Hints:
Strand content of chain B: over 45%
Radius of gyration of chain B: 14 Å
Largest sheet of chain B: 6 strands, mixed
Number of strands of chain A: 11
Order of helices and strands of chain A: EEEEEEEEEEE
Largest interface: A-B, 24 and 25 residues
Shape of chain A: globular
Structural class of chain B: mainly beta
Largest sheet of chain A: 7 strands, mixed
Helix content of chain A: under 10%
Order of helices and strands of chain B: EEEEEEEEEEEE
Oligomer: heterodimer
Radius of gyration of chain A: 13 Å
Amino acid sequence: DAxxxxxxxxxxxxxxxxxxLRCKPISGHDYLFWYRQTMMRGLELLIYxxxxxxxxxxxMPEDRFSAKMPNASFxxxxxxxxxxxxxxxxFCASSPGFEAGELFFGEGSRLTVL
Amino acid sequence: AQKVTQAQTEISVVEKEDVxxxxxxxxxxxxxxxxxxxxxxxxxxxxxxxxxxxxxxNEISGRYSWNFQKSTSSFNFxxxxxxxxxxxxxFCALTYPNTxAGKSTFGDGTTLTVKP
Lengths: 114, 116
């Protein structure tokens, strides 16, 4: 079975540009998560969805960040406008729909904002 | 509030040595779940184990073993006869019941380097 698929793997952009990260979760998983990983702050949960509905977006740092899940097989995380401090590895993860199900992570999207 | 502490930032061992990664957690709940994940150099995090707070039995899986002690709030991870492929960042995580594991609190990770 295919795992969580993220694209792009690497993105280099200039400050002020719009960035869109994409994720395809594992089929049948009810939960989808967006995490950000930096050296300074470690792994941070940005937002998560249950059955395509955003449940908790309290980790989204600013209004510049937005996430959507239009269907069960696709989600996007958008940053507009991007800033250098947004540089990080962004992970998408999915999880089965039972309590404390383990997370299945994608390979991450490494974002560099110049 | 919940907190996970991985006091060892970096560990370096020589191949075939045994190594233990420490994880200490804080929670006021009596029911909770603990996890270990591995992040190899390729970048993706890989699930290793889940343990609930009512199951204090230690677990062994090949060269990996986990020691869960509620009395000391620890969930330590031991790799026996380490190999170069074990080089990775290892994360311990904690979550409350009735929440999804995605709301886990992660430790800062321990970077393990196994030298040939």
